[in-house]
Amino acid sequence: MKKLLACVLAAAVLSGTAPLLSAPAMAQVQPIDGIAAVVDEGVILKSELDRAVAIILAQYAGRDGQLPPRDVLEKQVLERLVLSKLQVARAQETGVRVTDQEVDQAIGGIAAQNRVSVEQLRQQLAREGTSYNDFRTSIRDELLIQRLRQRFAQSRVTVSEAEVDAALAAQANSGAQFHLAHILVALPEGATPEQIATAQKKAEGVKALIDKGEMDFAAAAVRYSDSPNALEGGDLGWRSIDEIPNAFAELMRNMSAGQVTAPIRGPSGFQLLKLVETRDASQAGPSMVTQYQARHILIRVDDTTSDAQAKAKADTLRARLAGGADFAELAKESSQDPSSRAKGGELGWFTRDEFGPDFGAAVAALQPGQVSDSVHTQAGYHVIKLEGTRQADVGDQNRRAQVQETIGRRKLEDEWNRYLREMRGEAFVDVRVGKAAEATAPATPAPAPANGG
């Protein structure tokens, strides 16, 4: 439990603002606290940076040699904090909102994953010296960033049926999936020839270190990569051929596990790609899933209806159903879901999480013919009646949906990274720690490592 909590909290620090040092450590930091960076209208405190760095050091305990020097590590972590602050500010500026109820739900999910109650989670945080209010703030910021990214995806990323067809055809010819890692030596927009030459020299120097066996790929990524996933060793996870840019796909087909490419120039800078391993995903058989047929009545929470009022109305409707009211007629009369109201709340056949995890968990807990108590989701409060279940083969449907998702994820990754670079470049960021304490745009690549760095 403690290890899992540490991972959750570390992610929150690196993407948000949660301060996670113990009370004695905080007491040591506070007297010398100052401003690490000014980010537009906000600031990142030196204590925030110190706490975030402390989390990384704790995660790498016993593996300190894989981390870059302290000043380089601080620069990497500070850049993450800057990007997080910019994303949160942009989310708030564009009207993205997260309610207290949604934060409570997220924390409840974290507690459930750790198999503890929320109160036990709060006690565990206190024992580790973490303020519960700060933890809530970090979770809220994470949700804001997630929703900003979702809104961005909806407005900027589209996947056509022709693209899905082409990707499925490519998969039929090659069912391989590739586990990849990368090291990025970033270039700013409009890089000068000198900056390009310096970045290329650095990438070549890193490649030489790896080839000589003086540093493994993951450690080199932590130390030298400018990618947001540098501190995770540059791991990109498993990718199918349709998730890999065309410029790299042919290379992957001709590489063996463990091989590292020479520096490749891409839109973000120079990359080193490592093929960690491959697997064959072409032999997919039937994909049997449980499908549910249900009706529901939805009461929304909005500007005119509070959370408590919506729940009270849903509870009243549940009581009427218990008293013998017809579900379909009551749905036509009271449901606020325009897509199902006229059909008496009928939702048709669907898989468990098709309408979200909270709705799915409630449906899965019902027996055919049973009606739920009021169920809270992001949409509001539902009363659900399960009509029946069945087993269905959705292999082809799933494969098509998965391909569409992977193409969309690849496009989103490219567009989102470009969006973050634009956001970072337009922001006023005044770094107050380290040797480069100056108003800065995105940092230019450091010189190539000399004699193994």
Automatic annotation (TrEMBL):
Keywords assigned: Chaperone, Isomerase, Periplasm, Repeat, Rotamase, Signal
Catalysed transformations (reactions): [protein]-peptidylproline (omega=180) = [protein]-peptidylproline (omega=0)
EC number: 5.2.1.8
Keyword Chaperone annotated: yes
Keyword Disulfide bond: no
The organism's place on the tree of life at top rank: Bacteria
Ranges where the PpiC domain occurs: 175-277, 289-388
Localization in the cell: Periplasm
First-level EC class: isomerase
GO terms, molecular function: peptidyl-prolyl cis-trans isomerase activity
Main subcellular location of this protein, as a coarse class: periplasm
Segment forming the signal sequence: 1-27
PANTHER family linked: CHAPERONE SURA
Role, per record: Chaperone involved in the correct folding and assembly of outer membrane proteins. Recognizes specific patterns of aromatic residues and the orientation of their side chains, which are found more frequently in integral outer membrane proteins. May act in both early periplasmic and late outer membrane-associated steps of protein maturation.
HAMAP family hit by this protein: Chaperone_SurA
The record's note on its domains: The PPIase activity resides only in the second parvulin domain. The N-terminal region and the C-terminal tail are necessary and sufficient for the chaperone activity of SurA. The PPIase activity is dispensable for SurA to function as a chaperone. The N-terminal region and the C-terminal tail are also required for porin recognition.
The name this protein goes by in its record: Chaperone SurA
Originating gene: surA
